[in-house]
Amino acid sequence: MIVKTLAVGPLQVNCYLVGCPRTAKALVIDPGDEGPRILAALAEAGLQAVLVVNTHGHFDHVGANACLVEASGAELALHAADLPLLRQAARQAASYGLQTPPSPEPDRLLHNGDLIEIGDLSFEVIHTPGHSPGGICLYGEGHLFCGDTLFAGSIGRTDLPGGDLDQLLGHIRNDLMILPEATQVHPGHGPDSTIGREKSLNPFINGDYL
C-alpha cells in the first residue's frame, strides 16, 4: 500500500494519499487545503484519485474538496451526521478569520461498518463521534486513519458544537484500542503513532490525565 502525507493549510491538517500499487487508484483523506499541491503529489506518485473521504466536516479538513473533485472526477464521501457541518464550512472558517471554498455535496454518505474499496485495498468505516457527530476512522491493511478522533499522545477536542468527551473516549477505548497493537495510527494533525504506543503512553487512554 502506498501512503503519502501532506500537511496542508494554516492548521496543518494531515492529508493522506492512499494508493493501490497494482491499479494506481487512490483514496484521498481530508484534503483540507492546497488543492493544487495535493493534485501535484498525486501526479508525482502516478496515482489516480477515485474517492475523497472527509473524516469529519470541520472546515480545515474539507477546504480542497471542490478542487480535488473537479480536477480528478473522484467521488466525495462523508458520514451522514456531519453533512450539516460540511455545508457550513465557509461559516466555520470565517469564525477563525479564514476563508474556505464551499464543498460539493457528497456522492456517498457513510455509516458505521461500511467498506471502502480502492483497487485491492479495503477499509472499514468506524463511526467515532465525540469530536463531531459524524467523525469516522478508516481501518484496513494494518493502518488506521483517524482524523481528529485520536492523536499521538492526545485526543480530539470536544468543546466545539456537537462535541462530547465521554462519547469520544468511549469509542476510542471500545472501538480503536481493541485493534492490533502494531496498527499504524495516522491522525488528522501531528505525527503518526501505533495503537500499542497509545495504549501505553496516551494519558486520555491509560487514565493519567484524570
Automatic annotation (TrEMBL):
Residues in Metallo-beta-lactamase domain copies: 12-189
InterPro entries: MBL_Glyoxalase_II, Metallo-B-lactamas, RibonucZ/Hydroxyglut_hydro
Co-factor requirement: Zn(2+)
A GO term for molecular function: metal ion binding
Domain of life: Bacteria
Keywords: Hydrolase, Metal-binding, Zinc
Gene3D superfamilies with a match to the protein in the record: Ribonuclease Z/Hydroxyacylglutathione hydrolase-like
Protein name as annotated: Glyoxylase, beta-lactamase superfamily II
Originating organism: Desulfuromonas thiophila
Taxonomic classification: Bacteria, Pseudomonadati, Thermodesulfobacteriota, Desulfuromonadia, Desulfuromonadales
